[in-house]
Amino acid sequence: MRDRATSTITTVVVDDEQLACDELAYLLKDFPEVEVIATASNGLEAADLIRKLEPELVFLDVHMPGLDGIGLVRRLQEGGQDTTPHFIFLTAYEQHAVEAFRLEALDYLLKPVEKGRLAETIERARRVLQDKKVAPPVPVGSGAGAAAKPAPAPRSKLLVRANNRHFIVDANDVIYATIDDGLITLVTTNLEGQSTHRTIEDLQASLDRDMFWRVHRSYLVNINRIKEVVPWFKSSYQLRMDDKKHTEIPVSRVQTRRLRELFKL
Fold first, then answer.
1. Choosing a second label site near 261 at 20 to 30 A (CA), which of 59, 133, 251, 253?
2. pLDDT digits (tens, 9 = 90+) for 59-86
3. At CA 38, angle to CA 35 and CA 44, rounded to 5?
């Protein structure tokens, strides 16, 4: 959801108590810069929504059955994603504040949430997100006069580990790659297995960038293996791939423009 207007903060609310979730969503309606794009009632549901929708801000209850709020943040931070949203913890207990800030939470709100305190939190989120959009300075020595390091030639073969064996596959046969909990899975025309690369960025850098497209922070797809563009909700899209399962892969908001240009949508 990164391509929205700078005045809009895409937000997900997570709380296992429906009344508390509804109350916070109602309070947030008074802040036009905040757009609640989804709600979730537990950590596992929230993890899936966050990966698919890529919100900028998440209001997150600490105490939830199964995967609690702190466990959810740890999972996302350790999962190998490029970026994670900013988290604001919600709880009736002050003792979790230390752990919340250890996880670099943006803020920590006690229930019941007071509107004045919520306004301070949203203003803090607005400033932080605005600062992130400022382009970083160009490093010294990277100007026109600096010697450019030639990019390595893209690999035509990749190593895939599957069933305790190591297979060599043609890069053209790779349909897509995905990362989950730091493990990269490669899906090819004939097999599915793990990549020897540590990150999606490393994998993409070794391949032909004109062919392999990072459509989402968790997915790298072979453009030539896209079978169908599927309209999704709120003007977003998914890609149905040409693998045996016809896997549907979300396109992040940042990449939607390129998708439209690529297929003249």
1. 133
2. 999 888 888 888 888 888 776 555 678 9
3. 140
